[in-house]
Each structure stands twice: as C-alpha cells, then as structure tokens.
C-alpha cells in the first residue's frame, strides 16, 4: 500500500440533544493512502457523515469531538485553530455534499461560486479565477462552459449541479476529496455519470477520495478499499475484493444481501431486520447483536475487538474468535459473486 | 493498515468459552423495539414550552393578571369612575414604603411636599397608584382599563378564530373555483389598511368596546384565514384524510373531525399573535381619542390623560404605561414560546 | 419572463379593484355617517343649512355625488375641506405630505438597517448572550406601543437633556430626529426578528456548509452568502412594516406636533371632516397597494429564481 495521507485514531464524537448525549462516533480508526479511494459504507446514523465532517471540522454547534486524533500532513487537525482550518478547507481537503439541489447558493452565479475558493486560496485576480473556473467546467464536462458560468444554479439539472459542486471541490487541487453520498440524491443514470466522472477525475488529478455511501453497489465501481460502519464504529475494513468475496462480519453480509441485482434469485429484496442502535444509550457488548441472526451469548456482554483477517482486512465480530462456532457465509451472498464480478468487469470495459 | 489493531492471540482470557454459543431464540433481543418513548403532539409541545423560561414566566404572570382582573370585578379598591375632586392629583402612597414618589410626597417647586397632608387625607386612606385630576383612584382605573384591554383582545381573537378558521377551512378544503374566488377576495381585502377599516368603522358605529371589537374582528382574520388555508391544502392530500374518505365519512365530518384538530397548533400560535395586536390597537385608538370615550377607563385613554401632564404628575403616565408594556411583553413572549413549541421550524 | 409580467399585470388589476372598493365603501360610509360636518350645527337655520349643502354639493342625489366624487378623485381632486377654512383638501394635504413622507422614509431606513445588523449578529451567535440581548430589544420594540416610546423620548431627550426640540417642524433635521427614532422602533424590532430567523435558517443550509467547506471565514460566509439570501425575504414584510409606520405616524405626529398627514387625519376624524377623511383614506390605501405591488416587482427582480424562471406563479 502507498503512503499514508490521512490517519484517524480512535475518534469519538458526540452530540448534545434534548434527550441526552448521542454518541455518534465511538472510536473510529482508519487510514487513507495517497491516490486511493476509500469507501465508507453504512446505514444512516452509522456515523460515516459525522466522521467526514470531523475531518473538515464542520460539525454542527451541538457536536463535540471528545477524543481522538486526525493526522494530516503530520499534524493533528483537531488541535488546529479555526483560522488554520480555513486554510486547509477547500485547499487541501475539499468536500462534495449529498444534495446538489441545495448545495449551491441560489442567488450567486455558478461561475462566481467556482471562482471563490480560487480567489481565496490561490490569491488570483477575479478574471484569472474565472479562467480557471472555465477550465474546471470543461474538466467536469459542462456543455457550453463560457455561457454557463454566468448562469444561476436553478438553471441547471441535478446532475449538472453536482458536476459544478465537484468543480468547486477540485478548484484548488485538493489532496483529499471527501464525497458525502454524492450520488444518493440523483437518478440512476445520472448516478452512473457522476461516478464515471469521479473515477476519471481521480486519474487526472490523483487526489485521494473518501467516498461515503450507504449503497454497497456503488462501492464496487469506485473504491479500492471499503470500511463498513455500524453504530458509530468501523465493524469491518478491507480491500474491495476482501469485502465482497470474503466478508467476515454478519452486518457486511446483510449489506451485501441487500444490494439489488437484476437476476435476483431471492423473491424479495433483502432487508436487515430491526433498526439501528440507539446511540443515546448504546447497548452493552456487540452493537449489532440485536439484529444479528448469528449472535452469540458473548455478544451480550463483551464488545468484540478488531480481529485481523489479513494484512489489509479486519473485522469486529466474535464469530472470528477461535472458540466461536464456524459459520459459513450465507449461500445467497456467494450466489451474487458472479454478479459483482460482471459489474466490475463491465465498468472496467467502459473505462477502457 | 500496517499496525494490527488487535492480534488474534490477544484474546480476552477472562471470557469463558461457554459464552461462545449461539444465542437461543428465547433470549433473542427484540428486533423491532422502539427505544425512545413516544410523546403525543401536545406533550411534546408542552415539554418544549416548559424549557422556555421566558414563556413560562410570561404565562404565570398573565395568569396572575387575569386572576386579579377577574377578582377586581367584585373587589375593586374604589369605583374607577367615582370622582372625588378634593383628592385630585394625589401621588401614590403605599403604606410602609418610604421612597419619595411612593409615600404621598410630590416635588413642588423643587421641594418634596406631602400632598396627602395638604388636602387632609385620613392616615388610613391610601391611593396606591395615586389619583387623577378628578380624584379618581388610579389603581382602580388601571385595573378597569386592563380589564377592557383583555376583554377586547379576547373578543377580537374569538372573532378572528371564527371567521378566519371558517374562511380558511372552506377555501382550502373545497379547493377549485371556490378556493380561487375566495383567494381573490382575500387578496383584494388585504390591500386595505387595517387602520382605515377600523377608523371608518369607528366613525360609523358609536365608539366604545363593541365597536372596537367589531372593527378588530372585521380586519384581524385575514392572516388566520391564509394560514389555515395553506395548512388545510397540505393536510387534505394526506393518507389519513384519504382513509376517512374511503370509509365514507362526510366531507364536513372530515374537515371538522380530522383536519381541524391537526390545525390546532397553528391556530393557537396565530391567536396568540392576534391578542397583543388587538390590545395595541385598542390602546392606540383610545390614545388618539377615537376609541373608548370618557369617563370609561382603558389603558389607551389613561395614557392619553397621563401624557399631557407627564412632567408634573408622572404617575398618571407611568402606571398605565407599565401595565400595557407588561401585558404586551408577556403575550408576545408566550406567543413566541408557543410558536417554537408547536412548530420549531415555523417562521413568522 | 412573460410569466412574471402576466403576474404583475394581474396584481395591478387587483390593486385597482381594491382601490375602487375602498373608495366606494368610504364614500357610502361617509354618507350614512351619523353626526353633521358642520361644527355649529345647532345654531344653523334650515335656510343656512340648505345654502351650505348646496355649496358643498351635499344636496345632489347620491348617485350623482358618487360620480362627481369618483371623477374628481381620478384627477386628484378631493373637494373642499368642510372644516379647515374652506381650503381644497388637496392643498391641505399636499403641504403636509412632505414631513410625513420624510419621517416615514427616515424611520424605515433607520429601523431596517439597525434591525438587519442586530438580527444578523443574533443569528451568528445563536443562543449566546448577544442573541439574548437582541431578542430582548426585539421583544421590547414589538411590545411597547410607539406612543409610549415617543413620550419617553420626548421627555428624556427634549425636556430633560434639551438635545432636540420638544415638538414642531421648524428646526430642520433636528426636528426630525426624535419622531424618526420613535417611529423606527417597530420596523427595527420586526426586521431584527425576521432577519434572525431567516439568517439562522440560511446559515444551516447546505450552500452555507459548502461555502464553509471552501475555507471561508464565518463572517465572510455570513456576509457573502448568508445576508443576501436572508435579505430577499425581508422584502415581503416591507408592506406590513409600512402599514405599521402609517399607524404609528398618527400618534407620533400628534405627540411631536408635526404638520403631517397623520396629525391632519386625527384632526379631521375628530371634526367629522368627511372630505379630508376620504382623501387620507384613499391616500393611505393607494400607498399600501402601491407598496405591495412594488414589493412583488422588487422580489421578482432580486431573486434570480423568479426573474428567469417565472414558473413560480
């Protein structure tokens, strides 16, 4: 694996709400390597967005980072002042948000919005920044870019707006691009286009990407590595192949089963039973135990550690303990391998 | 990931092996358990309101004021309209309080003089708020005036409710051309300044409590109608209305039985905003002299009388001014609190 | 674009209907009004009354008078004042419109600009001490009637501190200061409150988050991206705010003895001066509907979503 660019160590984030303290992130550790795409996968409320916003230090006012470190360029981002963070945001670390319909300022032309970070960080004049914005528009494939720079956001479609948001994020050639569910709010066809765009851009500008999604189906296309989050923790992390073809955590199994396929052998779409844990008062032991059909007695008392599966693959489930009964991967997942392979292949073909 | 987070050998030895057996079905957790207790709409609003200290304090003060006002119907210190010219223009005197201005003394050409002694008021006879130019007890007049203000406000709010809700509900629920016509009418009426309507009404009907109530009732309902209509339009396409329709309930029943209860939040908020504006309007009209007429007291007439002699008899202005400010502030604070409680996202 | 024009055209038609309705109602009400416009009613003989009725055109049939009234009004002619030295209403009011307009505009500018600054600061420091102070100012501004304010200002700054004239309109700008401040309290409170809520919502929106993610400082985000978006909706309350200014001018002009429309209106009401009451009523209504129309047009121009799309209506 390549050189580390970002390292998160034992991050704890909580939110103060009227009902009490919600422990949204409870000890997340991960690393991001140069030039790779790391997918952060999980249900809503699993803490993936909060983890990303902690990197940007853009959490809401009622949030607090209780402990942990986020090391970027050898320095802890969490100990930086607001002013220092402003020099990092948009320049070294940039972010793409979920909903392109609301991410752009409705009363400012898109050109100005793209030029803004360029003026801010690269200290270019307005006209130079606009030239740069034009280049960015070409990079993200906006048709008639010269004319379109002067348009307002409402004159663009959702997919085009997301391209513009990506252009803004790329404006200062960031070292890390955090994409927080960038395709969730888009139609299926547009979704594929945006994924293609991100993939091709990564080749051109070689930035590292953290790609947040709740859809494992998307991950196969774009990611090098996958971290699966549940209940504010990483429950399994590994390369794409490891997660898809050798998943160890029952939650990952559930996620894989719930990816819809075209030739589905199952009668209905699979859904993991139950609802996510209440992070106001996280259950003792394994957080996933309540919804785990393979739960062991030990899950009710002890939290599982990260078991090492391979040099790159870790999972947090007692099923990996030598004393635990051996449980085979559900047949329905093995049946999908062929489908995943074909999907990945077709994607590669398309990219050429 | 070069550093292994936890090597497999590092097992917690204290965990007995017997724990590593599948959890049997009888011990299985309740999958679909809903963790947080559910609160009803009103409980939830009440919980939020209770957190708003200003609103709670306002509510208590208002309840006290209302209590005092109700009691003062029977137990007023004096008859508010009873003139007693020898006791005219007395400053306040409160027993056991020895602060100049509240002990019966007034400044006359730079010297504090006990005015009560000057006109030989008996020792045990006190005017807590002082008296006006006709020797009427100001406390009794402020009580009577506040009562008028509250009465007008409640009556105006009542008409506002009746007309506004009916209009908005009919317009929103009927929809189609009925809605279009009713909205056009509303649009035209809303171009008329309230001030103009109220003044025209007061010129036409004899000024007094009734005419002020009618005038305010005629103009106040427009916002309520708008809010109710907008909300009805939103609600009428929801599932529970559809369900009621499928069950064959009559249109009227659905509107009154299903839509109306769901509007209660915004109706309460809107009413709470009507009340202070009605109180203001009454005081305003009485202040410029076209509202309540002498000798009846209202906060507006008291202020009007008070401000003319403010420099020499400040108590005549201060007491009614403080009274109206307290009522207005508490109503506004409570209204704000209720708005935040019922609909945290709702704006003006 | 055509959608927007059609909308404006529609608004103008409503505006005319509203004005027609108001003028007709005013006319009818005035005619059935109890009481007589002649101050010395009891002393008049029947003959004198006939002469006066003929002089003021009160002896003609209702329909005819309505037509005369309406056609006169279109030319800006509101007849002759029944009270104030037989002057034409038009000349009475035209002398007085200046001070009222000046006060109104000054109060509007002062009130909204202070309100915007207060509201914005409160939103940026939501739930802080500053926010509490601003909320307190807004609540007091909304609750304390403007005539109470006016009297207090007059007493403090004119009577005791002698910084400004107590009343009247003869000291140029100095004369305008206290009444302007008294009038501006209500638009100040309204706009502070409005901008605060608006700004809080804007500051929580995704595009503000994106602006922060660009590495802009919080103040820059608030000014460049927040304020404009929070200000646009403020236009919608310009109408209600001008109404409250009109209402306020009645008392404030009286307290400061300013020769304005409001003061004249109160005088006319007290003396049953029908023609002046009708004229002021029409003046106020015309101003209000014009402001409402202006607000709609302005909103369309300022908000690019409406300007180009026109699909909003």
How would you describe what is shown here?
The complex is a heterotrimer of chains A (about 350), B (about 350) and C (about 325). Chain A is built from twelve helices and twelve strands. Chain A has about 350 residues and is of the alpha/beta class. In chain A, strand 11 (about 305-310) and strand 12 (about 315) form a beta hairpin. In chain A, helix 3 crosses helix 4 (about 125-140), helix 4 crosses helix 6 (about 160-170) and helix 6 (about 160-170) packs parallel to helix 7. The longest helix of chain A has 18 residues, at about 190-205. Chain A is globular and about 65 Å long. Mean pLDDT of chain B is about 75; it is low at about 1-10. In chain B, strands 1-2 form a two-stranded antiparallel ribbon. Chain B has about 350 residues and is mainly alpha-helical. Chain B folds into two domains: about 45-80 and about 135-340, MetI-like fold, CATH 1.10.3720; about 90-125, no CATH class. Chain C has about 325 residues and is mainly alpha-helical. Chain C has a single domain, classed as MetI-like fold. Helices cover about 75% and strands about 0% of the residues of chain C. Chain C has 13 helices and no strands. Chain C has helices at about 1-30, 45-55, 60-75, 90-125, 130-145, 145-160, 175-205, 205-215, 220-235, 240-255, 260-270, 275-300, 305-310. Chains in contact: A-B, A-C, B-C. The interface of A and C includes residues 121 and 169 of A.
**Poorly predicted segments of chain B:** 1-10
Number of strands of chain B: 2
| CATH class value of the largest domain in chain B | Mainly Alpha
Question: What would CATH call the class of chain C?
Answer: Mainly Alpha
User: What would you say the CATH architecture of the largest domain in chain B is?
Assistant: Orthogonal Bundle
Number of domains of chain C: 1
Most residues in contact, chain pair and counts: B-C, 39 and 49 residues
Contiguous uncertain segments of 5+ residues of chain C = 308-313
Question: What's the number of structural domains of chain B?
Answer: 2
- Overall pLDDT metric of chain B: 76
Number of helices of chain B: 11
């Amino acid at each position: 694996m390549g050189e580390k660019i970002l390292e998160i160590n034992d991050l704890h984030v909580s939110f103060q709400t009227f009902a009490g303290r919600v422990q949204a992130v409870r000890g997340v550790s991960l690393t991001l390597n140069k030039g790779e795409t790391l997918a952060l996968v999980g249900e809503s409320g699993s803490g993936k967005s909060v983890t990303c916003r902690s990197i940007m230090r853009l959490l809401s006012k009622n949030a607090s980072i209780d402990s942990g470190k986020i090391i970027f360029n050898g320095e802890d981002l969490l100990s930086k002042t607001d002013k220092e963070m402003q020099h990092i945001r948009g320049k070294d670390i940039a972010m793409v948000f979920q909903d392109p319909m609301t991410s752009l300022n409705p009363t400012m032309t898109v050109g100005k919005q793209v030029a803004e970070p360029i003026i801010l960080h690269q200290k270019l004049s307005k006209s130079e920044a606009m030239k740069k914005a034009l280049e960015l528009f070409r990079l993200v494939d906006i048709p008639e870019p010269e004319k379109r720079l002067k348009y307002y956001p409402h004159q663009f479609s959702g997919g085009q707006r997301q391209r513009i948001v990506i252009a803004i994020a790329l404006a200062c050639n960031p070292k890390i691009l955090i994409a927080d569910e960038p395709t969730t709010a888009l139609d299926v066809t547009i979704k594929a286009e945006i994924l293609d765009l991100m993939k091709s851009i990564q080749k051109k500008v070689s930035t590292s990407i953290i790609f947040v999604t709740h859809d494992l189906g998307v991950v196969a296309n774009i990611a090098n590595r996958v971290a699966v989050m549940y209940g504010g923790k990483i429950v399994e992390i590994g390369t794409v192949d490891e997660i898809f073809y050798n998943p160890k955590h029952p939650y990952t199994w559930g996620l894989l089963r719930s990816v819809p396929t075209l030739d589905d052998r199952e009668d209905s779409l699979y859904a993991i039973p139950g609802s996510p844990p209440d992070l106001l008062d996280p259950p003792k032991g394994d957080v996933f135990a309540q919804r785990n059909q393979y739960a062991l007695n030990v899950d009710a008392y002890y939290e599982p550690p990260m078991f090492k599966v391979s040099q790159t693959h870790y999972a947090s489930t007692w099923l990996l303990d030598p004393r635990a009964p051996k449980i085979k991967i559900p047949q329905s997942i093995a049946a999908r391998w062929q489908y995943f392979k074909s999907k990945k292949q077709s994607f590669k073909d398309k990219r050429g | 990931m070069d550093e292994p987070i936890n090597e497999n050998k590092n097992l917690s030895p204290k965990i007995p092996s017997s724990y590593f057996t599948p959890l049997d079905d009888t011990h299985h957790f309740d999958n679909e358990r809903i963790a947080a207790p559910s609160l009803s709409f009103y409980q939830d609003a009440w919980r939020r309101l209770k957190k708003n200290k200003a609103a709670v304090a306002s509510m208590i003060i208002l309840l006290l004021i209302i209590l005092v006002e109700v009691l003062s119907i029977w137990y007023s210190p004096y008859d508010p309209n009873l003139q007693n010219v020898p006791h005219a223009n007395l400053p306040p005197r409160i027993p056991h309080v020895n602060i100049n201005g509240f002990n019966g003394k007034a400044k006359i050409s730079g010297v504090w003089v006990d005015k009560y002694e000057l006109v030989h008021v008996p020792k045990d006879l006190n005017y807590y708020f002082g008296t006006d130019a006709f020797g009427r007890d100001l406390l009794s007049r402020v009580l009577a005036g506040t009562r008028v203000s509250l009465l007008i406000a409640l009556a105006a709010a009542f008409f506002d409710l009746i007309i506004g809700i009916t209009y908005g509900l009919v317009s929103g629920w009927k929809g189609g051309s009925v809605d279009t016509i009713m909205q056009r009418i509303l649009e035209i009426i809303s171009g008329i300044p309230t001030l103009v309507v109220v003044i025209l009404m007061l010129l036409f009907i004899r000024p007094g409590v009734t005419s002020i109530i009618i005038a305010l009732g005629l103009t106040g309902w427009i916002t309520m109608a708008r809010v109710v209509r907008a909300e009805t339009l939103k609600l009428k396409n929801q599932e529970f209305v559809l369900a009621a329709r499928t069950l064959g309930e009559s249109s009227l029943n659905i509107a009154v039985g299903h839509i109306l209860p769901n509007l209660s939040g915004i109706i309460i908020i809107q009413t709470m905003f009507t009340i202070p504006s009605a109180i203001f309007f009454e005081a305003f009209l009485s202040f410029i002299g076209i509202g309540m007429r002498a000798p009846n007291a209202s906060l507006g007439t008291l202020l009007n009388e008070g401000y003319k002699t403010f420099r020499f008899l400040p108590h005549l202005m201060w007491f009614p001014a403080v009274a109206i400010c307290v009522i207005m502030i508490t109503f506004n604070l409570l209204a704000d609190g209720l708005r935040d409680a019922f609909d945290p996202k709702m704006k003006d | 674009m055509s959608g927007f024009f059609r909308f404006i055209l529609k608004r103008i038609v409503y505006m005319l209907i509203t004005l027609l309705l108001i003028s007709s109602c005013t006319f009818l009400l005035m005619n059935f009004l109890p009481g007589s416009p002649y101050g010395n009613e009891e002393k008049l003989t029947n003959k004198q009354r006939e002469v006066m009725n003929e002089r003021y055109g009160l002896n003609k049939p209702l329909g005819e008078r309505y037509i005369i009234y309406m056609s006169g009004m279109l030319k800006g002619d509101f007849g002759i004042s029944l009270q104030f030295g037989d002057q034409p209403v038009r000349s009475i009011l035209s002398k007085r419109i200046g001070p009222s307009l000046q006060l109104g505009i000054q109060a509007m500018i002062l009130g909204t600009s202070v309100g915007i600054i207060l509201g914005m600061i409160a939103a940026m420091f939501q739930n802080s001490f500053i926010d509490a102070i601003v909320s307190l100012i807004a609540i007091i501004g909304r609750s304390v009637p403007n005539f109470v304010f006016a009297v207090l200002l007059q007493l403090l700054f004119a009577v005791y501190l002698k910084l400004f004239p107590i009343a009247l309109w003869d000291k140029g700008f100095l004369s305008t200061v206290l009444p302007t401040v008294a009038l501006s309290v209500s638009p100040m409170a309204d706009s502070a409150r409005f901008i605060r809520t608006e700004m809080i919502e804007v500051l929580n929106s995704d595009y503000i988050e994106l602006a922060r993610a660009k590495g802009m400082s919080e103040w820059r985000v608030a000014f460049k991206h927040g304020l404009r978006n929070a200000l646009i909706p403020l236009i919608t309350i310009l109408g209600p705010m001008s109404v409250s200014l009109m209402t306020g001018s009645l008392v404030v002009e009286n307290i400061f003895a300013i020769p304005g429309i409001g003061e004249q209106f109160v005088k006319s009401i007290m003396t049953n001066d029908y023609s002046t009451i009708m004229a002021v009523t029409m003046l106020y209504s015309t101003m209000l509907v014009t402001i409402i129309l202006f607000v709609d047009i302005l909103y369309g121009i300022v908000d690019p979503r409406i300007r180009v799309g026109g699909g909003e209506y």
